[in-house]
Amino acid sequence: MSAKLVLTAFMAYIIYFFTISLQSNSVLAWVYGAFLLYLFVMMLFSKNANKYRRLFQLVFAVLFTVSFVGNLYDERGSMAITQNAFYESEIPFCHLVIPLTIIPYALTKTIIFPARISGHYASILSMLIIWLTATVTIGRGWCSWACFYGGLEDGFSGLAKKSKIKLLPKNNEIRIFHFSFFAFLILMSIAFLSSIFCQWFCPFKLITEFTPIVDIPSLIATFLFMSVFLIFIIVLPILTKKRTQCSILCPFGAMQSLLSPISQFKISIDTEKCTSCMKCAKACPFSAIDIDTIIQKKGRPELNCALCGACLDICPENAIHMEFSFTKKLAKKCGLSLSNKTKSKNKIAGFFKDLTQPKHAFVFSAYTFGVIISSSLATDGLRRIVSAFIRALSLGGI
Amino acid sequence: MKASLGKIIFISISFFAFIFCTLGIVSSFIFGESLQQMLNSILHLRIYEPYVGGKIVSSIFDPMYDDTGSGTLVYPSHTTFAEGNLDLVLYTVHEPVFNAAWQDFNEYWQLDFEFRTGFKNADEPNYNKSIYVYIHLDGKIGGETKTLFEQAENISFSQDHPWHYALSIAGKEAAIFNSNREKIDLAEVVYSSDGKKIIVRIPLRKKELHCLYTVETMHHYVLVGAYSALDFGNILPIEKRKSRTSGGGLVSRFAPKVYDVLYEKDQSQMLSSWNEDDFELSILYPVKINMKNVQSRTPLISQAKIKEIKDEKKLLEALLYKQQSERIQNLKNASLDSELNERALLFLHTGNKKEAENQFKMLLEKDPNNPSYLAYIGSLESMKGENAAVIAAVDAVNKGYAYLDKAIQLTDGVLEKLKNGEASEAELLHRLNALLNRGGNSQAVPNSVFLKAAQGVQDYLEAAEIAHISGLQILEAQCYWDAAICLLLDDKKSEAGIWKREAARIFQQISESDLENYSLEERQEFLSLYLHLFEEGLAE
């Protein structure tokens, strides 16, 4: 309990600094800050952290969209990419492009995307720093805790009560397709020295910026990205209750899955406790737990686990845990048994043990990432919504 | 015992992993700017050239404030022409590009033109320039020495470098012609959102232009006139007196009708080389462009000279410190506001920030809306963040900006007043203090956290304009330099280069006789700027 209170106090400090102090102590920053702290407290103290994580991601995704599109209209008067922005390398760089630029960079020493190198929140270097930090800390946990697009799928997947299409038996095929598509995108990016995903497939153009339709290829690209948005962000998540774009198309997700062994956290399934009820497999929005994962007693989800925590919350046997990636090896070296759950008699040791519980550490780290990433964009989005609301009221004569 | 030790080790390592994650995440944002610099020093990132116009082969700076043609021309009185609109400051030539993805043309050649000022109003852009680029390909025979359209620019070209291609940019339209005056193709014209920069992409789909891929050196003539859709060659005529439909300042009917030409030195002599008696127009000389084997020219900088300047600066600083300390003593019993203000400033300059703050706060109590006091207190508040803990630092900077923004707000409109000859000396001083303090602050705080570099550029450029009108040359040059530093913080290297060169140009105008009349403070400023310019090879 005291460890949780300490973590809450630290989170309040982080929220105050990034969300309130850096946003000039505005009223809306305080409102958003209070909301963030409420979510964190609920994540820590309730047994349904995933529910509050989803709420955070949904709110962030909506406010991000409002802020991004609002800024585009302020600067350019439309959501269309202007030639000037393109020629002057002023296109915002997002994490989805990173995997497609790495090999072309190694070959040409250049970045195949017309974005600013530094000095901006959406510059190449700032996104690279964020990516590197995410990779060595929370790994693919980025997708479920800090990605500014992921919340949309989370939101739509929560609309239906039950899934109409069962993807569980096809999990393996989904993964194979995801990694194959990822390989295809990389090969195409090398062949054409162009970020093929952004050019043709990225569904988030519909909520950020897009190339205006000026010829047949741009018409096809527009048709493609609108279809991908409709199918993978709206329809399939509603029908399957899964994050389909993240599990099938997203190149960043695929890359982070491959890099997940570097990160500090992973999920472990206690095969002795597991009763193979499959609730975790059904609940996993990233299709990372297969029937085979459970039957073959693999003891951990598949490579594409995004550490969202849905399985942890739903497991009736408490058989699923978050752990540090080094936990098992270290415990063996230290001669400790992980199954030993006795409480420490020493209060200080007990406090530290509680504080460093992998689940607490992960939720704290991942949420810190989300809080920082969201702070300015979400506050700006909130400001735009409130001012639009006030304008609407004043126009309505109220 | 062994089990307890194992437990302690386990908990400690888990604890460190937790701290590593949390601190790593938080630090990656707080120290984002330094980390970005560090990462870039390893990766040396640049954008794949075909996206951004191709590799730059030449960037030629043209002096500012030379948009008077042969020295007498004035802009038309039509409201679309804002001061500096026709003043070319930078011309950039790229290498021709092939196989460019995600672009309108797969094969193109890009030329960039940057001007001193842009659109008056970004919502109603004014496309008021008529630009001609005449291109001589070295080694190619033939060519033309008269202009593309008769009676347009009123100019002729060097016999040694007749042009083979001419690019005409009229407002938003552009086309490339051969020396037989036949149109080869249309070119794409893109204006930057502020209107200062024009990017022209010439498609290289026509076989006639393919020689541009292989040419090693060429010579360019770049001419800037005022746009008119109705006149010869889309160039607005020049008359003795300016009007809505003509520029002013015509001294001869042989005088060129261009306001600026690309020439690194003084263009007026070249543009006034016409001969009325022999009916000869002024002859222009081109600028050489190396298209292949381009190596960055790093000037050799004498380290001994740098040491010499630094030593001189140190000596001057010591002298100044002594003088200022004595003056503080003299002002010990000061009671007048002007003396108290001087004392506060002296405290600030001698590094006694606490005393300076006390003095300024005392003065501000008496005069709560004094922009200069507000500006200095703003800077001092912000400086408190320098060695403070992160949250305290952010609070200090925010508090500082509250004062600084108020100082700027209180002095808004002074530049316009100055242009109309209505600004008082006190108003000017207040505005300069507000701008320089806020600019300095924007330069000092990390841009990745506060995003203030762009605001810093605006502040310094306005301060430079005030200094220019008021004839304060050192301040003007210093402001251009500081604006360039803010631009670098905002990752705008080419624009920073323009202002650095302008700082160097103004600096070079300061004569030794001026220097003798300078106070110690001014000489110290002069030396600081000299050191910066010398280190970058911009001053001798």
In short:
Chain A is built from 19 helices and 2 strands. Chain A has helices at 2-21, 27-45, 49-76, 83-87, 98-108, 124-136, 141-145, 150-157, 171-192, 196-201, 216-240, 244-248, 251-259, 279-283, 291-295, 310-314, 327-333, 347-355, 358-395; strands at residues 265-269, 320-324.
Describe this structure in words.
With 398 residues, chain A is mostly helical. Chain A is 62% helix and 3% strand. Chain A is built from 19 helices and 2 strands. Chain A has helices at residues 2-21, 27-45, 49-76, 83-87, 98-108, 124-136, 141-145, 150-157, 171-192, 196-201, 216-240, 244-248, 251-259, 279-283, 291-295, 310-314, 327-333, 347-355, 358-395; strands at residues 265-269, 320-324. In chain A, helix 2 packs antiparallel against helix 19 (358-395). Chain A is globular. Chain B is an alpha+beta fold. Chain B has a domain at 56-290: Immunoglobulin-like (Sandwich). Chain B has 16 helices and 13 strands. Chains A and B meet through helix 1, helix 4, helix 5, helix 6 and helix 17 of A and helix 1, helix 2, strand 8, strand 9 and helix 8 of B.
